[in-house]
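REQUEST FORM: STRUCTURE PREDICTION
Request ID: SP-0412
Submitted by: Lab K.M.
Chain count: 1
Length (residues): 474
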Amino acid sequence: MSLPRIVPLVLAGGAGTRLWPVSRDAMPKQFLPLVGERSTYQQALVRVSSAALFAPPIVMTSDPFRFFARRQAEELGIDATVVLEPMRRDSGPAIAAGAAWARQRDPDAIVLALAADHVILDTDLFEDACRAGRDAAAAGHIVTFGIRPSAPKTSYGYVRRGEPLAIKGLSRVAEFVEKPDAATAVRYVAQDFLWNSGNFLFRADALLSELGRFEPAMAKAVEDAVAAADIDSDLGFVRLEAKAFARAPQKSIDYAVMEKTAHAAIVEGRFRWSDIGSWDAVLEVAPRDEKGNAASGPVLAVDAKGCVVHAEGRLTAVLGVEDLIVVTTPDAVLVLPRARAEEVKALVAEIQRQGRAEAKEHRRIYRPWGYYESVDAGDRFQVKRIVVAPGGKLSLQKHHHRAEHWVVVRGTAEVTIGDKVQMVHENESIYIPIGSVHRLANPGRIGLELIEVQTGSYLGEDDIIRFDDVYRRS
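STATUS: Completed
RESULT:
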């Protein structure tokens, strides 16, 4: 009897503050191209796109990121089911909800829980590990992927292998251990422990059964949230029922199940892997020059060694330095020694304490229809660049305190002002008076780009009265 295809469950709801200033709450690392041209989320989707081995994926994310998850999957031609968590409850409830949804579609579903913000190279070796793990999962084991350490890292958990299983390459898990101190990490590596990658393969009913044994409150909350989930007939998202999901304890799948179950097994993944948890981790998977520098964007490194340099939009040059992390974005610059990469999270906490918007938001603000970014601002005026994706449509709205001038620089805009609808083409402009009910849309097949000049006594984003919104924002 042939085994069913594996159902990928891509977890894409995290934040990733240790990769600030690129990763922020408003646009976290999984949707950004940190290594390569595609986001790590897109890389994860491509990794599980072999129709012979994998079924169409389920994506777990939250409401603010639903359109990113949908759009980035569609760019790859992948039809993903996007399931929305009402609030963050860590990996335990997220994986359980995805497993419950997969079981509704197929009672015998075998699920691969895969973090969207990890980088895995060597796709053929990854698929080999999935095939071996599928055999063990079908027999009732809950399989974790272990990675042979390249160094005694203190930022990863470890796994000790027990007795071998009958399935080649699989062993029982003898012990899960938390992130160690430096001396303990050296001992773990010497004793042939593996890193715990945090990716799991299991039969959906087996995982849910163990969850019911060890965390019955979580299992019941997730079961109720899935049973009462709302399937958006227009936009196609699956929304877990909020009150039920809120009852689920906030706990990782490691604490909830993996460290307690007698059915844990491990397959060694021989592929290159990194959770990209910090800027220092980029060096493990990114291409490097002859001096060991990893650079992305417009970067010039002269007489530099062992540096990570990431630049967005502006030339970033380093000279005569070693083992530094240098990150530049349009509104923030980060410089620190590589050895202190784990401390970025504390730095972001201090930026938040000072009440600075850069802690959570980028200058470029993403919306379901595209994005806008501030170009200039002063007393009673603001200039923005607005990009609307093909088919995108802003809400029907008005402003009490500002007028707007739009100049189209690319594509064609469909502009509604009151009862009048007109097309505004490249190199043309239009004026939106204060108080006018208006809407901007892109009816074309290419991106619409325009420059907006706002003038008025108050230019805050909260001066928007929405009358209709195709994306169902309040």
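NOTES: The longest helix spans residues 123-138.
Reviewed by: T.R.
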